[in-house]
Amino acid sequence: MTSKDYNYATWGHGSESFEDFATGAPLVTSRAPSFSVEDLASGESVEMKDLWRKGVTIVEFGSFT
């Protein structure tokens, strides 16, 4: 995949695609499923549910393209 395949200048997929995405997205109050992540300090695998039990956990997803 190249950057031209991934990026687009305008949303050209039609309103139906956006509506499907918007109505199928999780709600703000929904509980996220647990998944394994790597602890960057130790390199060990950690379950997100274990972090959530300790308090507020912020997960940020982004794209650097």
Please characterize this protein's 3D structure.
The chain is α+β, with helices and mostly antiparallel strands and 65 residues long. It has one domain (3-54). It has three helices and two strands, in the order ααββα. The protein has helices at residues 3-6, 14-24, 48-54; strands spanning 36-38, 45-47. Strands 1-2 form a two-stranded antiparallel ribbon. Strand 1 and strand 2 (45-47) form a beta hairpin. The protein is flat, with a radius of gyration of 17 Å.
In short:
This protein is of the alpha+beta class and 65 residues long. The chain has helices at residues 3-6, 14-24, 48-54, and strands spanning 36-38, 45-47.
Comma- or semicolon-separated keywords:
65 residues; alpha+beta; 3 helices
User: How many strands appear in the DSSP assignment?
Assistant: 2
* Number of helical segments with 4 or more residues: 3
The domain count comes to: 1
On the 0-100 scale, what is the average pLDDT? 77
**N→C terminal distance:** 12 Å
Overall body shape: flat
Biggest beta sheet attributes: 2 strands, antiparallel
Alpha-beta classification: alpha+beta
Fold blueprint:
Layout: H1 3-6, H2 14-24, E1 36-38, E2 45-47, H3 48-54
Antiparallel strand pairs: 1-2
